[in-house]
User: What shape does this take?
Amino acid sequence: MDIHPIVVHFPIALLTVYVGLEFLRFRIVLALPWWRYAKALFLLPGTIGAGVALLTGDIAGESFGAGGDFLRILELHELAAQTTTIIFSVLAVCYVLVVATEFGLLERLSGRVAKGLPSFVFNLARIAERVVSSWLAPVTAMAGLMAVTLTGGLGGLLVYGPDLDPITKLLYRLIVGG
Assistant: This one.
């Protein structure tokens, strides 16, 4: 049984909501002490779900023996899904480091790990804080949303064909030509 179509919709929904939250950058919202955690609650499971969708998509893709244009679209769909997962994984790691710093988890772990590693992790946490607090987070989130949209369009093209709607028709023409 192919569970990819079931699995894929949860990360799409969670990550889309996360991107929307990332663009709510009003002072009153940013001042809320729980705002970062709310965004992380959508981003982290969405990113994990994207990884699961990527794995189930690999399994589903192996069952297709078709070649030609279909294989080309399938490969582009997989590349777009990998890109989506990487983009949101970078953001998720940033949020994990920032939240871990805020809760003091990095300080507690620093005494238990190899020498030199704590300073590396603390430096990463500082970079992550800058990413999360600056314009880089919404811009990266928007790039992730664009990748999700492309992935979904290519998936729709694989399942329903090029005549589903004007967007899939245009996408098909761009890939195959004509």
User: Anything to note?
Assistant: The mean pLDDT is 90. The two ends are 35 Å apart (CA to CA). The chain is about 80% helix and 0% strand. The CA atoms of residues 80 and 150 lie 7 Å apart.
